[in-house]
Specification:
With 417 residues, the chain is an alpha/beta fold. Helices cover 38% and strands 23% of the residues. It has 2 domains: 212 residues, Carbamate kinase; 117 residues, 2-Layer Sandwich (VC0802-like). The radius of gyration is 22 Å and the shape is globular.
Amino acid sequence: MRVFKFGGASVKNADAVRNVAHIISLYTDRPLVVVVSAMAKTTSSLENVVQSWLSQNENAIPLFKDIIEFHHQIALELFPNNNPELDQSIQDIFDYGKTLITSSVPENYSQAYDALVHVGEILSTKIIHYYLLELGHKSEWLDTKKIVTTNNAHRRATVDWEETSAQIKAAINEPNIYLVQGFIGSTKCGVPTTLGREGSDYTASVFANILQAEEVTIWKDVPGVLTGDPKVFSSPILLEEISYREAIELAYYGASVIHPKTIQPLQEKNIPLFVRSFMNPELPGTVIGRGLTLKPFAPCYILKKNQALLSVATRDLAFIVEEHLQLIYKLFHEHGLTVNTMQNSAISTSFCVNNDPNILPKVVAELNPYFSVKLNEEVELYTIRHHNPQTREAIRAGKNPLLEQITRETYQVVLHS
């Protein structure tokens, strides 16, 4: 058993779908689970629909219709003579979304998000499934919502491993190609949930763990795991090997190649993870596994954009103590606000958090009665693993850090965008 994961960039248009099908065709000698994300920009477009829906904006249906039409056009390119079953699937998804949007206005953003955004993965996997059938492959489409059971923590759901294990093993027991959706699941009552942005990598590792797969491959638009995002950092180099531990550290700090939760299920079963290029599938890429080192050993750079620096201080100059932190973190947990780094002083504590326009204002409003709150928006968080004085200075480049932390292996700094 192998598990492949294809992200949005790898299925962005009809030619990309053809390329994914070609890669899959090279590995039909054994059972294959193919986890697919929504097509490029679809998740962001669906988030805009959710915003319009919650705002009771009349643009919600037209925006959703544009998404459906985008997928329909890709289907037309792949099936010039039409594919009635695929056409009906796309129509059914449109009908579902239209009914959902026009039925009521939900109070809970996260639940509304999960109710609608998951259709991006449904659309992409339906298109690829029918295209594989057209090519003569033995493909089976599975609804991940029916086999990945989670709790009801919307937008950050936790997998129920016992139920999910039984359902995956029951669904996948033939030497087929199985098309499944990343990122999504549902509660025991069948309410759609999502595992967090970029959660498709984690979905792949869940399937691999339960099926005891030989390996997992994440297909990306880069040749493997690099020492930095080539769109941000100059001349990054390819890392040929990475240990599980180092991969978890890089993922935790925000490396875009792997999702933070992806490694743990693979480490448990000692399943190697390959990161390879869908544009050059003949290249070996990067392997992540047990007993490996960081090869070559080099500083690794990570940038998290769209951050905010939230500083919270006591009003009476009292020390920040455990009681204060408990209140603050309780609010963060209730609202699903992600903390990327933090730093304490005597009377204040600062958090670099995701600048989520739907969550952050609510958190600030609830903190204000108890604390003096300062918010710096439009900041960026840089992290360097295996730093040295030269790399630190190059990142700062004469700027005045808003927050700076140094440990033996990791350097983090918050700078104005």
